[in-house]
Amino acid sequence: MFWWGTATAAYQIEGATTEDGRGASVWDVFSHEPGRTRNGQTGDVACDHYHRWPEDVALMRGLGVNAYRFSIAWPRVLPEGSGRVNAAGLDFYDRLVDALLAAGVQPVPTLFHWDLPQALEERGGWLNREVSELFAAYAATVAARLADRVPMWITLNEPFVHMAYGYAMGVHAPGRALLTDALPAAHHQLLGHGLAVRALRAAGARQVALTNNCTPVWPASESEADVRAAEAYDILHNRLFNDPVLLGKYPDLSAYTSALDFVRDGDLDTIAAPLDALGINYYNPTRIAAPTGDGLPFDDAGVTGYPTTAFGWPVVPDGLRELLTGLKARYGAALPPILITENGCSQEDVPGPDGTIDDTARIDYLDGHIAAMRQAMAEGVDVRGYFVWSLLDNFEWAEGYDQRFGLVHVDFATQRRTPKRSYHWYARFLEGQNTDT
Ligand code: FCB
């Protein structure tokens, strides 16, 4: 069965951040600090999905997707990050899973989509190796409850973005700006992933994956300096998170760090635990030039000459084909089947006078990327699923509510949901798919 779905994440949609015993996450704290997010917006209410989930499941049933990737909020299940389990938190996801299955939608939960319990941040967050073990214990707790009904688990979402934005540059929670000293946060996430794979399987999980954000890297010119910088970027963005998982070793990081003294014997064997799928989130390629002296070994030169989304991200559907065939060329038989766990675009999406939202650019974006994925499949890449980011307009992290990625428009003042034209387009597209092949 090919999975056609949509994707969301807990902090971006749930709201109800202080209800039913949920503990605080790093995103609650960060988004409440002045100047961290656009207009000081937070996920306190978001899409109020915690209360409106039956309506959201009905929207998925109407859409005709056969899978849904959502995330589980660690602090809802374990308010202090470890130890005491909050039964109401587990009950929420238990009900959601049952409702999805009843609607013919396979639940694909992600265990960590950036909302670390604040209690663990106070112990050093992902810079503290102990958090890797606590993550595996949390995974075991959730799986003990849900593994009988969940066909596919995803451990982490985009450990690169969490390390780079959260720990290296400080533009996402927990807001640390450590530059290359953020590398332990990469290793401990990967170690947490490996330990969680083991814990999930021990608890009866059927299939397990990891989601990485990957990008084709284009040198800004043929100059040696630009080509070398592009290699550095490829190492830090793509290979740092794929090589250890798929090959059991880190790429050569000697140019960026003096010692990998946080890597202990046996860690790489744990991290390289076999996977049933690799999740890939693709948005755009990256064009890289020689460093400018700001402390990073590369400079983002920007992709020019393509249409852009509301975020300013270049729209390059063929980049998805390039990425997938490149992964196959690089990893060969070590590459598991692929799930496109996120792909989509933000647009301005203002309702017209009759209330309809005519998001033709999103339809073109999705249509082009699905075609590029199919081209990669025709070139021999084993892709098993595609999830649109996102079902709903939601809290886009530091960008707040301005960047709308949904197939469904959300009026955040009233919480009214209005399917956009792209929702109807995707529904018609799905009617024409044979999901058994
Ligand atoms: C990805 C995130 C997701 C969403 C999209 C636009 O990096 O995983 O939560 O913000 O970008």
Automatic annotation (TrEMBL):
Pfam families: Glyco_hydro_1 (PF00232). Its EC number is 3.2.1.21. PROSITE patterns: GLYCOSYL_HYDROL_F1_2. It catalyses: Hydrolysis of terminal, non-reducing beta-D-glucosyl residues with release of beta-D-glucose. Signal peptide: none annotated. Keywords: Carbohydrate metabolism, Cellulose degradation, Glycosidase, Hydrolase, Polysaccharide degradation. GO terms for molecular function: beta-galactosidase activity. Coiled coil: none annotated. Belongs to the glycosyl hydrolase 1 family. This is Beta-glucosidase.
